[in-house]
Fold this sequence. Notes:
Rossmann fold; single chain; alpha/beta; NAD(P)-bd_dom_sf; 2 domains; 281 residues; three-stranded mixed beta sheet
Amino acid sequence: MEQRNFCIVGLGLLGGSYARGLTEAGCRVTAVDVRGEAIRFALDKGWIAQGTTEDARPLLEQAEAVVLGLYPHALIDWVRANARFLRPGTLVTDVCGVKQAVVGPVQDAMPEGVEFIASHPMAGKEVSGVEYADSAIFRPANFIITPTERNTPRGIAFARQLAETLGFAHIAQLSCAEHDRMIGYVSQLTHAIAVSLMNANGDPRLCEFTGDSFRDLTRIARINEHLWSELFLLNRDALCAEIEQFEASLTDLKEKLQAGDEEGLKDLFRRSTARRAMFDR
């Protein structure tokens, strides 16, 4: 891609996977993180050329592109404190799972000539930290670009090139509002259901009797409470609407079950099977 000198701010699972993937693609990558051990690990692996836990200014001044791998509130705070060090022409993106609460404040904080183009890699694991970074998580995954009227064709092209360089399977473009509504359903609701399943029954013997279906449904219940509480609360209206829609669907199934409506149940199962098959194309 055109931009070859990247700085990753926040060297966690996603930031580390970006660093690894971009280095593998021939880019020069530096990193900023509060954890010295994260910087040392990435240096030892050869995923970054340079890193710091203190003064980010020298690395930011060198960067052609910056990836913000921070939690939402920390991202906004960090940008307000450090965006002044970015040189004109720098392109900035993020990995944040909510957009409406983040994009406006971040774009407002950018200095003249620096463009923030928001994006969301739909990839991850149930663990955190650069120690688990793996660029292979991007290959089967979706990548969402969420431009605003303040973005340029150059910024949008950069985000698309970044996704292509990292090897994402599919790239889509949504408004920030569309993104948050969609993510409220396909990501946040699924995590809410997994958490609720684990909390609905406290029998300590469950793990002795469960099968693959329960394991699959609750895989994402191993959840980072700090990150996901931020994501849920920042997108609460969309998530609450999706929970209500899910409650209505579950109630419909329960009512058919209570009524002994075999054909109604079969219809639900046929529809769910057909819709799920669309994901395997």
